[in-house]
Amino acid sequence: MRTFGFLIHPLSYDDVLRYEPKAAGKGMPLIKKILEWMPAYKVSHVTGVRSLTGEEIEGYFIAVPLLPEQFLDLPRADVMGRIIRGANIAAELGCGIVGLGGFTAVVGDGGPTVAENCPIAVTTGNTYTIAAAMQSLFRGATEMEIEVPQASAVVVGATGSIGSACAQILGNRAARVTLAARNATRLAKLAHAMQPHVSAKLEWTTDIGNALRHADLVLTATAATSSVVEPEDLKSGAVVCEVSLPHDVSRRVATERDDVLVTEGGNIRVPGSVNFNFDFGLPPGTSLACMAETMILTLENRFVNYSLGRGVNLDKVLEIERLAAKHGFELAGMQAFDKEVTPQMIARARERARAARAASRAAGVASS
Ligand SMILES: NC(=O)c1ccc[n+]([C@@H]2O[C@H](COP(=O)([O-])OP(=O)(O)OC[C@H]3O[C@@H](n4cnc5c(N)ncnc54)[C@H](OP(=O)(O)O)[C@@H]3O)[C@@H](O)[C@H]2O)c1
């Protein structure tokens, strides 16, 4: 049977306990130290991925057990060595391709160095993540009665691999798109290069809070290790599609803003009766889009370096969407803050946003 590998890592303290329940009660400094000593290892055998075509594949999850901030803070050569070791474990297990999950795709050059040092194909999974994120954002827009062609959008993490492709797609769907991140030089360069290829008016900013206050559509795809989207910054009625892992929408949004719709952008229902043999926090039968890309390529027998490095080919986004549909991969139900987003929650957000719009129109009439 054809086999894939996928590199995973804990995203938070709670996640470490999923990987190693015996860590409960140990403080963060000790846990970090222990993780620093731990090499990559096989976590689980994934079974039951069955395409609509009837074909079945299997896979392995391999942990590169570092927290996001450790991927960013430890010496680069050490971190890259651990990721390359993880990819080589996949090769030793007989996998034809290995997907780079979470920060294993963010650090360094986003894949090429791993591919050069591993005998099997490598993909970040970012191409299908972009497709899933856009589908998810537009599904949310429909639910919140947002007319995309008239809407203002913000992409937070716009200079990244996922963010820049999403910004370009949104640039031909929405009226205005603001590119947001921390580095002004990279933002200005991207806006200049992208503007001739999109119909929307493009702007850029490092003031993320201010950009969010005017946005109907928000897509977040940052490599931040703490919240960047705060409840006080969101426009009433906005849809926030969150791709980043760890999440960068503050958990306060869940309790303080019932007039906006937050949805995780990359959750995919896997065809067949998949058993991951590992709980990574999503409902049964649900994977991340980057994992799903690795599975789709395995079903297709496409053991090639598919998504690598920072630039993503938009033609491939259409291709992977087609292949996903062929094999029966589709967007999972909406989820945010580790919980299902129910139809009642969506209806409430829509009603609250309508009421806020009516109140602001009334205030406008009263003051004119
Ligand atoms: N859900 C899924 O299936 C899935 C799949 C793949 C990846 N992901 C996640 O998607 C995210 C983006 O991945 P990527 O490969 O596109 O990363 P990337 O290429 O490294 O881009 C990261 C972007 O975030 C910005 N950024 C970093 N820190 C920031 C901060 N503190 N505040 C604001 N912006 C910040 C960066 O620009 P500046 O440095 O200039 O700020 C850059 O624009 C990651 O969290 C990754 O784990 C999710």
Brief write-up:
By secondary structure, the protein is an alpha/beta fold. Helix content is 40%, strand content 20%. α10 links the parallel β10 and β11 (261-264).
Summary keywords:
single chain, 368 residues, alpha/beta, Rossmann fold, six-stranded mixed β-sheet, six-stranded parallel β-sheet, 20% strand, globular, binds NADP nicotinamide-adenine-dinucleotide phosphate
Helices, strands, pairings?
Layout: E1 3-8, H1 13-19, H2 28-37, E2 41-50, E3 56-63, H3 68-73, H4 76-92, E4 97-100, H5 112-116, E5 121-123, H6 126-143, E6 152-156, H7 161-171, E7 176-180, H8 184-194, E8 201-205, H9 208-213, E9 217-220, E10 239-242, H10 252-256, E11 261-264, E12 267-269, E13 272-275, E14 286-288, H11 289-299, H12 314-327, E15 330-331, E16 335-336, E17 339-340, H13 343-367
Parallel strand pairs: 1-3, 1-4, 4-5, 6-7, 6-9, 7-8, 9-10, 10-11
Antiparallel strand pairs: 2-3, 2-13, 12-14, 12-15, 16-17
The site of NADP nicotinamide-adenine-dinucleotide phosphate has 32 residues, from helix 6, helix 7 and helix 11.
